[in-house]
Amino acid sequence: MRVLFAASEIYPLAKTGGLADVGAALPVALAERGVDVRLILPAYPEALEAAANKSVHVKFEDAVAGTTRLITARMPDSGLPVWLVDTPLLFNRRGLYQDQNGIDWADNAERFAHLSRIAAGIGLGRLALEWRPDVVHANDWHLGLLPAFLHTAQAPRPATLFTIHNLAYQGLFPTSVFPKLGLPSNFLSVDGLEFYGKVSFLKAGICFSDHMTTVSRTYAHEVTTQEFGCGLEGLLRRRKRALSGILNGIDGRIWDPSGDPHLAAPFGRQHLAGKSVCKAALQRELGLAPASDLPLVVYVSRLTEQKMADLVLKSVPDIMRRQVQMAILGEGDAGLERQFIDLAQLYPGQFAAYIGYEEPLAHRFHAGADILLHPSRFEPCGLTPLYALRYGAVPVVRGVGGLVDTVIDATDEKLRRGTANGVVFEEVSPVAMLAALDRALALYAQPILWRRLQSFGMSQDFGWNASARHYSNLYRKLVPDAEPTPATLDRRGSWHRCAEA
Ligand code: ADP
Ligand code: GLC
After folding, report:
1. What is the pTM of this model?
2. Which residues pair with 392 in a beta bridge?
3. Residues with a CB atom less than 6 Å from ligand 1
């Protein structure tokens, strides 16, 4: 089974959010199950820098995008094969989707159409003749045109799977971009890319893929409702039989408190002493008062409406009236960023805000935190609470999307049985969020109950095994006659097909 996994970001080559984490870990879990998986993403400067064993596979002049080199390389950590689409005109700039001021690049339609076109070329064996995928797995709106390009091709063509990580980001552009995309003119119709007078890349993925997944089962249902469907619910309902939910996992190689190089001390479920060391280190690092007994509440997130960053900001003064410390790690909306920084000056020693994107610091936040505040208006999966659970930080979340499938509310009965791992609230309001936080703080004040909550969360297996099994079963359903290709990861993590080994 050969799979081309196409995404706009894959950690550690490029990352702005959870999509990159999935691109890093799912393919490795698939390779471990014997899937011959190769990756493709743009050759952003940081991706070119980080990729290993680079060589130019083919160089050509693209009529629209200019000089393009398809670079073969290896992922620096897992050793999986990866193609980098090196088109300097489109990808040689800092910022994956936006410029320094948070403005979307004006040519995003051309950029990601180009990526999809190249991936389709590989899918059809036109660019890498020695290797043709059975399945092309396209992710999010950036790769929405990939199933559309493959749909236009004569058989034989690979099967297409489209994974929706976030329906709210749709890749909407004026119809004036359509002629530049390279699709037949009849694709700009209500049965194709047209969406309320615009071109929608996400809709292309939904219309033209053989199957779709979302990143949790609850979200797979939610996207068919008016509340969460972002206007696409009708179409998704019509294609319901081709839609399923597979929960994301977390990468135990990267998120493991017992062997995490970013932490002041290692710890685990049975030996929590190291977590107190991490908390003290984080308090020092952020300029918070050195108080081991005060609960430390953190918020690690893109500062967006999705993550209710506006409500969190509004609630900080209320939270500060409680016996707690709070720290924020995030970037996003410039206005919110500024106001969080102002609040840090208002509550020195009690509230800290780190504005920016700092991967190692995210690890230290989870390790040092007692509570992760993670309210979301919608949440397709939500990896952040899963990292928190692994690191013994109890999540306080809104019961929506993937969080319904992962966070188990500390009701009296669940607490007694030791089967709760967090606190869940329902309403989008500061009152509901603060009431949930208060429930968590009341539990924190009861060390035996708290240890039980923490301990159950830390013991849960949110690894990729089960999800990778679901994906490989799905690939097999899409291509029942594909030959199994035994593949393996050796101990040092470098990938090789058995036949080559
Ligand atoms: P989303 O993809 O919607 O942002 P997820 O919770 O699934 O939400 O994934 C977010 C990922 O981005 C996690 O790996 C989280 O640690 C990381 N992250 C978000 N903001 C920051 C930040 N400011 N610094 C470091 N990591 C961050
Ligand atoms: C999106 C979603 C998030 C999910 C991530 C990875 O960014 O917002 O919920 O965990 O993709 O699938």
Report:
1. 0.94
2. none
3. 17-19, 21, 300-302, 329-331, 357-359, 362, 381-384
